[in-house]
Amino acid sequence: MKSLWTYSVLTCSLLLFSLALEAHEAPAKVYIISPVNGETVESPVLVRFGLQGIGVAPAGVERQGTGHHHLLVNFKTLPEAGQPLGKDVKHFGGGQTEVLLELPPGKHSLQLIMGDHLHVPLEPSLVSEKIIIEVKDGSNAVPAP
Ligand SMILES: [Cu+2]
């Protein structure tokens, strides 16, 4: 009877340990939930930010394993590492995880980059895939009856 109990405790411990290990080892990832790459949308566009493996903290709050979102709209290259992100980047220092974005008609690229409490890109860098969306020209939209 005692050995069965020991066995159960051991199994549970192993299970918990492997779960903890799995959670810990999940690589940090930032991604755009919506819109999706290639989507045609209307302005304003609701852009939703996804994050895995790290947390969101407002700018100015220094906490290990956290950062805040930055959105790169129509950037050809990534901002320089090791320097605070500038005003050309959209900062979400309040810890926001989505934005309603006004964009003119045409193609636009969107990409997320995580920055620390001082707006410096995280090291190692945490950058989403770049997506391309097309904003419809709303001027010739058919008015509702
Ligand atoms: Cu910032």
Fill in the keyword field for this structure:
binds copper (II) ion; 9 strands; 3-stranded antiparallel beta sheet; 145 residues; alpha+beta; 6-stranded mixed beta sheet; 1 helix; Immunoglobulin-like
CATH topology: Immunoglobulin-like
Strand/helix succession:
HEEEEEEEEE
What are the segments in which pLDDT stays under 50 over at least 5 consecutive residues? 14-19
Provide the β-strand percentage band: 25-35%
**Considering the protein shown, what is the CATH homologous superfamily?**
Immunoglobulins
Distance linking N and C termini: 77 Å
Helix count equals 1
Give a description of the structure.
By secondary structure, the protein is an alpha+beta fold. It has a single domain, classed as Immunoglobulins (Immunoglobulin-like, Sandwich), CATH 2.60.40.10. Helix content is 17%, strand content 32%. The chain has one helix and nine strands, in the order αβββββββββ. It has one helix at 2-25, and strands spanning 29-34, 40-41, 45-52, 55-56, 66-73, 90-91, 98-101, 106-115, 131-135. Strands 2, 4, 5, 6, 8 and 9 form a six-stranded mixed β-sheet that branches. The longest helix has 24 residues, at 2-25. The chain is globular and about 75 Å long. Residues 14-19 have low confidence and may be disordered. Bound molecules: copper (II) ion. Copper (II) ion is lined by residues 59, 68, 70, 85, 91, 93, 115, 119.
